[in-house]
Model the fold of this input.
Amino acid sequence: MKSLVIGVIVLAAALAAIAPSGLNWAPDVLRFLKGSVPVLAILAGLVLLFVGIADIKDLRDTKKEEKKEK
Done:
């Protein structure tokens, strides 16, 4: 219950900071998001690349084990 109340307070404070009538941090937040999206895309691409390579290796190992069983 305590974490729910704290979460609502933090969310309200963040929204107030972004609002034009508040601290007006919206342009800075958008600038941060524009800069972080390419970095996150690169990281996601690398993770997907490594998962794909591991999947190919597992598939190859499975085929080798099936051939040994026959």
